[in-house]
Write a structure and sequence with these properties.
InterPro entries: GH, Peptidoglycan-bd-like, PGBD-like_sf, PGBDSf, Rv2525c-like_Glyco_Hydro-like. This protein has about 575 residues and is of the alpha/beta class. The chain is built from 13 helices and 19 strands. α5 (about 280-300) links the parallel β14 (about 255-260) and β15 (about 305-310). The longest helix has 22 residues, at about 280-300.
Length: about 575
């Protein structure tokens, strides 16, 4: 049995669907490549011509329709990508690449609000923006959609190539349809938060499989979950199939999705895209990555409450490298929480996952919600061996990648995959991230219309995080705060009077995940518990994130007064009572 713990970054540019429906289209013209002696080559397709470095590959998808659109080596791909391509699982990272394809109903479905359009008679869009390592331009006078993948280091090079574009005599116009979905059409969205509640086998591959392959595998394979690379500027493969429609279809058919972001890597690696060694900068980079992941998830119809997994490849850990990774993940987690998403972390069990576990209770870092770990030991389970204590991330918060880079065939469709085993649950909405608002008080007094101060600001922040918007937390208890409090109370079955008293405070402060905690436990869940017990009991319980004797006694007192088993162990029953405002 293998003890290999690393895998390779893969997935593709974020060609997300928000548009649909195009009329008739012209057939694509043959691709042409004309080498130039001055170190560039002229590449033409469908009346669109660009100058690219002589060392770049050119792949004609008409001649090789199942070619993998991979960006780990500079390449221009010309033509319409096949629905099912031959992508290896071991594609590593990204350099640069350009896809020039005809505008069709399918390609229009991958355009986004950020897709630039050239003016009539032009092949260049000077103001085209880059999002998530991708620049996309609709050159309608040539009838092509151009998608350019890059890293921060290669963006200028790629923009130079795009700036060289011109129309040729073969150009024929096809407009990109941007009309909204038909009135009355059902919105495209996942069936619920992803990956949802599921225990069993899954897989991840370089690029999202075709609908036909997904249907065949659903009918005949042992898998019911699939990893999809939705965001990140260091993904290695394009995603011609990954659209909101694809997401809706898969989840509607019973598939569970594992949304993955492949962004900056540990600073102690040789990857070209790395996070900063300065913890504060690394944390800010994590925030930026999470913001991009939220946008991508939203465009794909993957809703709040879903977990999104940051892929940080294996590294040889040092103290500074570990600090950078965990700082990046803190920013990643806090920003996802602010957007209503759960945070996940993929890495090698022997490096990133081990480092995260070693600081599980350290309040200097914000702990991720879910683990996705590579340990290629062939065991389809969620055992973490010596890498992570069994009590950590133990509440349906684990995915084990137990084998890698294997080709399987089901229903006539072959895909190179990594094998995963999941034990995941929807959990609760992420614990609130209340930047600028203090939540730690020695008492939580009743606040109502007309009240002011820091406790009001805390209540407003908690209400907003719970999905009941009181407006900007300003410390003034006005009509909007009263309405938000009433709506929250009604949702919890409390007296909907708009007054935030002990029961409402208890329900607000205890919101979040519900892991079993007891004497010796540490971390964010313990902090929430201590706040909630302070409100529920009407006495001060030290809020330090450490479950000591004082917290244990307060838990027993609460349990006894609410008719629960008074063992001082806070499990589902105690959390349920707290979150109900009892």
């Amino acid at each position: 049995m293998s003890s290999r713990t690393s895998w390779r970054a893969r997935a593709g540019t974020s060609l997300l669907a928000v548009l649909a429906g195009v009329g008739a289209f012209t057939a694509p013209a043959p691709a042409q490549a004309d080498p130039r002696p001055e170190g560039t080559q002229s590449v033409s397709y469908h009346g669109y011509r660009i100058e690219v470095p002589a060392g770049w590959r050119t792949v004609d998808l008409t001649e090789n329709p199942r070619a993998c659109l991979r960006f780990d080596r500079p390449t221009v791909y010309l033509g319409e990508p096949a629905e099912q391509s031959d992508c290896p699982a071991g594609v590593v990272g990204r350099t640069a690449g350009i896809v020039v394809e005809p505008i069709t109903a399918r390609s229009s479905g991958r355009a986004t609000a950020a897709t630039a359009r050239t003016q009539r008679g032009k092949a260049v869009a000077p103001s085209a923006v880059s999002g998530d390592g991708t620049i996309q331009i609709a050159v309608e006078d040539a009838g092509v959609l151009v998608t350019a993948a890059h890293t921060p280091e290669t963006e200028d090079l790629v923009r130079g190539v795009l700036a060289s574009a011109e129309l040729t005599g073969d150009a024929e116009r096809t407009a990109l349809t941007t009309a909204a979905r038909r009135a009355g059409a059902a919105p495209l969205a996942a069936a619920g938060p992803q990956p949802g509640t599921y225990t069993g086998k899954g897989f991840d591959a370089c690029t999202a499989p075709s609908q036909a392959a997904m249907n065949a595998w659903q009918a005949s394979s042992p898998y019911s979950a699939v990893g999809v690379y939705i965001s990140g500027s260091f993904r290695g493969c394009a995603q011609p199939n990954l659209t909101a429609s694809w997401v809706t279809s898969q989840t509607g058919n019973g598939w569970h999705l594992i949304p993955i972001d492949v962004g900056r890597q540990a600073p102690c690696t040789n990857y070209s895209l790395k996070m900063s060694t300065d913890p504060a900068t690394a944390k800010a980079q994590g925030v930026t990555a999470a913001a991009g992941a939220i946008t991508a998830a939203s465009n794909l119809g993957i809703p709040a409450g879903s977990a999104v997994y940051s892929d940080i490849e294996a590294y040889t850990s040092t103290a500074s490298c570990k600090a950078a990774v965990l700082s990046y993940l803190s920013g990643w987690t806090e920003r996802l929480h602010a957007g209503g998403y759960l945070s996940g972390f993929y890495s090698s069990a022997a490096s990133g996952i081990k480092d995260a576990a070693s600081e599980y209770g350290n309040p200097a870092y914000t702990r991720v919600d879910h683990l996705f770990y590579a340990w290629w030991n062939g065991a389809a389970d969620t055992n973490t061996g010596s890498y992570v204590p069994s009590s950590y991330w133990s509440d349906h918060q684990r995915i084990h990648q137990y084998a890698g880079e294997v080709t399987e065939t089901w229903g006539g469709y072959s895909i190179n995959i990594d094998r995963d085993y999941l034990d995941v649950g929807n959990g609760s909405t992420p614990a609130p991230s209340c930047s600028g608002a203090n939540l730690d008080f020695t008492a939580y007094p009743t606040v109502r219309s007309g009240s002011t101060g820091n406790q009001v600001k805390a209540a407003q922040c908690l209400l907003k995080a719970a999905g009941f918007d009181p407006g900007a937390p300003d410390g003034i208890f006005g009509p909007d705060t009263t309405a938000a409090a009433r709506n929250f109370q009604a949702a919890k079955g409390l007296s909907a009077d708009g007054v935030v008293g002990a029961k409402t405070w208890t329900a607000l402060l205890s919101r979040g995940s519900t892991p079993t905690v007891q004497n010796g436990s540490t971390g964010e869940a313990v902090t929430r518990l201590q706040r909630a017990l302070t409100a529920a009991l009407g006495r001060t319980v030290a809020v330090d994130g450490v479950f000591g004797q004082g917290t244990a006694q307060a838990a027993r007192d609460y349990q006894s007064s609410r008719g629960l088993a008074a063992d001082g162990i806070v499990g589902p029953a105690t959390w349920g009572a707290l979150q109900s405002g009892k």
